[in-house]
């Protein structure tokens, strides 16, 4: 059961505090009162509060000064000005300083309830739009193609059962297997589907900025903190946060993340006021967290908190019967995007795709189909369309007699990577993106096949 929203009422008139407090309490809010600006700021610091009702005329510190202090500390908190000295000038000044609404005394209980309800709705919208807009604008994430393999059928059965719950899920799988897509699928079928889905790429964030990204910071808390910033947990409040590649976070951040999971509250950098968050946590990893626990680089207590429901996504090489369904999906997707009309793929090309082991998994297959659709001049993809940039996806090697012998897989993979390095001038980042694998996987394969020389000749 969710806790009732907390409101702070600052007014020097005891009759106003009493009457407004009763109206709002009966409406289901928790109301804290203060009679001066100084007392109000002290109460606000011990919050958190969802909205503040503030008298403009207060003994000592004035209402506008109090509001500026509140907005500096918590920009998302709406402030409703209440005053018996209503005028256009004071209303304009209050709105310019950041007031959400303006009520002139005397006002009716209905007017008060309506103002508070609008303020809380505005607060919710403001927080959600920080990250939700970017997520909603993401293309081609509306559905997840699974195929007909038994492995994926078992996986989706688990997803259907766990989605409506609030249980923490740990998604385990190699790079490119679709861990984020699966997390979105869980959120889409959860009771939180109307709220935000916030992604945190733990492998991409710089360690020095990680805490600020997750938990936020207050204005002036460190060099460059020019304004108060919401963390990802606050932005996901009421919804789901997806911590991708969780194995990359430091022990220091692990300890703070564990506290958030246990206490369900965050404290911004430079702040002293804990902020309650109602968030479902999904995490993903492409490394064995149990191995990291044994090595002492990942906290055992955090591991058990995250892996309440562990879900394993099988690599594409273990479910090749799904490749035809994935190919059809990607053909439709890239026909739309590239405005092409590639309607089919030849049996020989499809067999080549099924014969390859796909070290980059679905991401590599997707890149291969996109490249083929964009470059093909026909409405049917053949084997020749799968070799661009040296991507020899398991194609039969034709000898002088036109006959078939198939090369060893490692030989093809080595040639595949070598050709991609040449095509991208030895740049590891661009090569990894083209192959659909991460830089660590690429570097491991470069060392395995002795391809370091192709890096040395070109830009790193």
Summarize the structure.
With 460 residues, the chain is an alpha/beta fold.
Order of adjacent strands in the largest pleated sheet: 2-1-3-4-5
Number of domains: 3
Which CATH C-level class of the largest domain is it? Alpha Beta
Give the overall silhouette.
Answer: elongated
Mean pLDDT: 83
**CATH homologous superfamily grouping of the largest domain:** P-loop containing nucleotide triphosphate hydrolases
CATH fold field value of the largest domain: Rossmann fold
**How far do the termini sit from each other?**
54 Å
- Which oligomeric state applies? single chain
Explain what this protein looks like in three dimensions.
With 460 residues, the chain is α/β, with parallel strands linked by helices. The chain folds into 3 domains: 6-129, Response regulator (Rossmann fold, 3-Layer(aba) Sandwich), CATH 3.40.50; 146-314, P-loop containing nucleotide triphosphate hydrolases (Rossmann fold), CATH 3.40.50; 317-456, Helicase, Ruva Protein, domain 3, CATH 1.10.8. It is 45% helix and 13% strand. The chain has 20 helices and 16 strands. The strands form 5 sheets. The chain has a 5-stranded parallel β-sheet, sandwiched between helices. Strands 7-10-13-6-14 form a 5-stranded parallel β-sheet. A two-stranded antiparallel sheet has the order 8-9. A hairpin with an 8-residue loop joins strand 11 (265-266) and strand 12 (275-276). Helix 17 (409-423) packs across helix 18 (428-435). The longest helix is centred in the N-terminal third of the chain and has 21 residues, at 109-129. The two termini are 54 Å apart. Residues 136-142 and 388-406 have low confidence and may be disordered.
